[in-house]
Amino acid sequence: MKRSRGFRSKSRSKLKKKAREGETNIIRRALQEFEQGDKVAIVIDPSFQKGMPHPRFHGRIGDIAGMQGNAYIVRIKDGKKVKNIISSPVHLKGIT
Description:
Oligomer: single chain
Number of helices: 1
CATH topology: SH3 type barrels
Radius of gyration: 14 Å
Shape: globular
Helix content: under 10%
Strand order of the largest sheet: 4-3-2-1-5
Structural class: mainly beta
Largest sheet: 5 strands, antiparallel
């Protein structure tokens, strides 16, 4: 049988919460707001699957390019390409 290569394959260590982390203010992070041009880091919260960006972008830093519904469009540079990542605010962390 052919091996499954789904969205979360090979991401066991990346999408795992620490023992003491638990449900730390997921509501506060879901309601956070960003302005266009703000710098954010993509930090995936595995307990919230809706609006999760692909695990390959975990830890990347980008700029807010706009909104799409309740999600934000984050513009990151991947090599020489510029990519737009659509992510829920739960998976974003503001950088000052």
